[in-house]
Amino acid sequence: MAEVQRRPGGRPLPQSARGPPPPPAAKPAPRFEPVDREKTCPLLLRVFTKVGGHHTDGEFAVRGKEPKDEVQIYTWMDATLRELTDLVKEVAPEARRRDAISVLCVGRTFSYPNGRRPDSGSKALSDLSFQVGTTCY
Predict the structure, then answer these.
(1) Which of 3, 13, 31, 129 would be 17's cystine partner, CB 3.0–4.6 Å?
(2) pLDDT at 62 exceeding the cut of 50
(3) Which runs of consecutive H residues, i.e. helices, occur in 11-124?
(4) Which Pfam families does the entry link to (predicted)?
């Protein structure tokens, strides 16, 4: 229980004299329910890998002429970025390098994370406001 500060006569001090009000209790971020992967149809996530940079908008200007370094992942909205990174690492050798960083439009992960290099790996697509049909370069 908080203690009210009082003046030397017993009357409480005004709020401004007591200092700033305490910060409001932090509300936890909304957590989405896990998806029943047996009953829910997956979405197709098209990932284009590139070493040393990002693809440009122009590389996607003509449908059917996208870059050839595509990895197609069938996944669900509760998939974490770590799960997606591990799937990309299975088929893209360059993503397995110790210093590799995977950047998706909603976050980034390290090939081998540690306490000194935090990443977004534990966050699910739904936690990161990912929307089906989104195009990110």
Answers:
(1) 13
(2) yes
(3) 81-91
(4) SAP18
What is the C-alpha R_g of the chain? 24
Contact (Cβ atoms closer than 8 angstroms) between residue 113 and residue 107: no
C-alpha pair distances (Å), 96 with each of 9, 65, 80, 87? 70, 27, 18, 11
Amino acid 6: pLDDT: 54
Which residues, 6 or more positions from 28, have their beta carbon under 8 angstroms from its beta carbon? none
Q: Which residue has the higher pLDDT, 39 or 9?
A: 39
Q: Among 116, 107, 115, which residue's Cα sits nearest to residue 84?
A: 107
Q: Are 99 and 52 in contact (CB under 8 A)?
A: no
User: Does residue 92 have a pLDDT over 60?
Assistant: yes
- Lookup result for tokens 């050798």: 93
Indicate if the pLDDT at residue 105 is higher than 70.
yes
